[in-house]
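A reminder from the course coordinator: this example appears on the midterm review sheet, so study it carefully.

Given structure:
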């Protein structure tokens, strides 16, 4: 079980306030979707949890320790941007990642790329966009951190790749012990996979609910909820 808490967290970029006094405790495990309009603060929220950026005020803690440069073994961040080296092969990418991340599970990484039908001898620069996204996911999941922060893993992918990526996450996530946070605008596709949902609007978390409970009490789809609270 993982305890992630945010206490009055605010973050500005220049004069722009990207997060405003976010105060919550995240679920201990399972898959949580973070949805919201463009610019609502989703990426900023994930970067703060992964310790890639620091809040201007407030605290983010994972299992009681403030996140920061040293929290890499607690939370992994999958960036929407290209984070692979083009000149490496798939196999070299795994070996390189094993050298960079303590606790990296090489065996899991090899299993994942095999399941993804990637050839370990292929150079990253020759992979299709979908296969690059798969490789990024394999490397992130093989870190086996208690918290996985996946920032737009479905963005720009065709429907079959999106479905495959969601399937891989569900199959290989240790749902009893890991918490996976996913941001996406593909709300309809994401909804069936979610245990929990956070809806963000203007730098605040305006909905923080268990998805089952939400379905029973509100009888609305997440898209409808999103429209209602951000419209
Ligand atoms: N490095 C930065 N410098 C300046 N402003 C930034 C920076 N990163 C984010 N912002 C601004 O902070 C706000 C929140 O951005 P963030 O990327 O967290 O939102 P988001 O919900 O992830 O958006 P999207 O859905 O478009 O990816 C936006 O207004 C954005 O323009």
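Designed residues:
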């Amino acid at each position: 079980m993982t305890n992630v808490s945010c206490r009055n967290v605010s973050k500005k970029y220049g004069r722009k306030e990207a997060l405003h006094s976010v105060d919550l405790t995240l679920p201990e495990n399972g898959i949580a979707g973070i949805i919201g309009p463009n610019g609502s603060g989703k990426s900023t929220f994930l970067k703060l949890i992964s310790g890639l950026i620091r809040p201007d005020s407030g605290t983010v803690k994972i299992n009681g320790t403030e996140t920061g440069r040293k929290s890499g073994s607690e939370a992994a961040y999958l960036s929407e941007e290209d984070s692979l080296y083009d000149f490496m092969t798939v196999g070299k990418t795994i070996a390189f990642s094993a050298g960079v991340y303590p606790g990296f599970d090489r065996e899991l990484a090899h299993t994942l790329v095999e399941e993804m039908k990637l050839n370990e001898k292929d150079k990253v620069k020759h992979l299709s966009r979908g296969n690059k996204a798969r490789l990024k996911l394999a490397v992130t999941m093989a870190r086996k951190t208690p918290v996985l922060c996946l920032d737009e893993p479905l963005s720009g992918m065709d429907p079959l790749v999106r479905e495959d990526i969601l399937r891989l996450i569900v199959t290989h996530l240790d749902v009893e012990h890991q918490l996976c946070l996913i941001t996406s605008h593909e709300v309809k596709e994401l909804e069936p996979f979610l245990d929990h949902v956070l809806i963000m609007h203007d730098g605040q978390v305006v909905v923080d609910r268990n998805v089952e409970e939400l379905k029973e009490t509100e009888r609305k789809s997440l898209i409808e909820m999103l429209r209602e609270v951000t419209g």
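Helices lie at 42-50, 90-100, 106-115, 129-141, 159-172, 187-190, 211-218, 222-230. The longest helix spans residues 159-172.
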